[in-house]
Amino acid sequence: MISTEQQAMSPELTKKIDDSGVVAVLIIDEVKHAVPMARALLKGGVDAIELTLRTPAAIDSAKAIKKEVPEITLGFGTVLTVDQVKAVVDVGADFAVSPGCNPKIITEARRQGLSFAPGVMTPTDIEIALEQGCRVLKFFPAATSGGMKHLESMSAPYNHLGLKFIPLGGCNIDNASSYLQSPLITAIGGTWVAKRPLIQSESWDAITNNAREIRELVGKIRS
Fold first, then answer.
1. Which residues pair with 164 in a beta bridge?
2. Which structural domain, as residue segments, surrounds residue 154?
3. Is the peptide bond before 99 cis (omega within 30 degrees of 0)?
4. Which of 187, 190, 130 is nearest to 155 (CA)?
5. Which residues are catalytic?
6. pLDDT for 73-125, tens place per residue?
7. What is the pTM of this model?
8. What CATH number has the domain bearing residue 81?
9. Based on the structure, what is the number of domains in the chain?
C-alpha cells in the first residue's frame, strides 16, 4: 500500500474538501464575474470550487479569486495536459481534477506538488489511480453511469483501502442526499450551485441561495 506521504492528495486538502461536503463546479466566461461569484458562494457557505478550464477566462478568473477571496479552496477541472497542470500550479491552485485517469497527468501533478483527483468510472480506472497513489477520486460521470448503485459495486473490492469519491456529472440538489449519505463520498460536485447562466446574468443572490441549500443538506446529513 502506498503511504500517506506518497498519496496524490494531501491530508490537509482532503480534510478541507470533506469538511465542505460540496465542490461548486464553475464555468466562467468573463473575469469580472469571478470575484462576486466566489463571494456569493462563500456567503452561502460553499468554500470549495472547481473552476473548469473550458473558457479563456478561467486562469485570469482564478488569479482574481486567489487575490480577492483567499478563503476559497481553489480547484481546477478539465485538466487534460501537462501544460495545464503547470499553469494551474502557477496560479496557486489548491487542487485539480480531470474527467479521466491519465497517468501522465497524475505524475506531473505529483511532481509539481499539486493535490490531484483523477476521474474514474471502472475498476480499471481505479487500479490505474491506485498505482499513482490516488485515494481521493472523481466519480464521473456519476448519474449516467449508474449513480451510487454503480459506485458501491465498482468500489467494493477496494473498500479496505479507504478510498473516497467526489461524484460529478448529473448531481444536483434533488439527488445529493443519495450520495452524501454514503461513507464513500467525501463531497458532491456539480454546476447546479452556480450554473453558467446564473453567473452570466450576475444572479448572485440565487447562487448564494443554492449554496446555502446544499450546505444545509450536508450539515443535516452529517450532523
1. 136
2. 4-222
3. no
4. 130
5. 50, 138
6. 999 999 999 999 999 999 999 999 999 999 999 999 999 999 999 999 999 99
7. 0.94
8. 3.20.20.70
9. 1
